[in-house]
Amino acid sequence: MNRGFLLLGFAWTVALVATLGSLYYSEVRLFLPCELCWYQRVFMYPLAVILGLALWRQDLRIWPHALALSLIGGLLSALHLFQQRFPDLFTLACKPPVPCTVEYIPEFPIPLQALIAFGLIAGSMLLVAKEARGGQPHPQG
């Protein structure tokens, strides 16, 4: 199997696990998501769908779209993690009922979990981009 499709499958698996994990936290563990959690979901949930469809269609051309979603989602995750770690230095107007500083799992914060997932997807998409170009470096223009 082509390395690009293995990477695409890996990215899809990460997105699917992250999506199902967030649903588990909110629907089974009953963790109420804060506003930043919702924004991160806005970027993760479509990744599970579009990467799955691209894998099914064997289409590596999804990489720029998935890379954009994962980078924006990763920035939101980093912002959320920063807010949790330094609540007095940086505040966002998170609306009730759940402030963005709530940590349901202090040992492995949910925004860190999301940041790792977005990072793995972004890294995979960069490698998929290289494979989609036939392994050739991008021409400097």
Automatic annotation (TrEMBL):
Membrane topology qualifier: Multi-pass membrane protein
Major location (coarse): membrane
Keyword annotations from UniProtKB, A to Z: Chaperone, Disulfide bond, Electron transport, Membrane, Oxidoreductase, Redox-active center, Transmembrane, Transmembrane helix, Transport
One GO MF term: protein-disulfide reductase activity
Top-level lineage group: Bacteria
GO cellular component: membrane
InterPro entries, sorted: DiS_bond_form_DsbB/BdbC, Disulphide_bond_form_BdbC, DsbB-like_sf
Membrane-traversing stretches: 5-26, 38-56, 63-82, 110-129
Localization per Swiss-Prot or TrEMBL: Membrane
GO BP annotations, alphabetical order: protein folding
Matching SUPFAM superfamilies: DsbB-like
Pfam entry (one): DsbB
Family in the record: Belongs to the DsbB family. BdbC subfamily.
The protein's name: Disulfide bond formation protein B
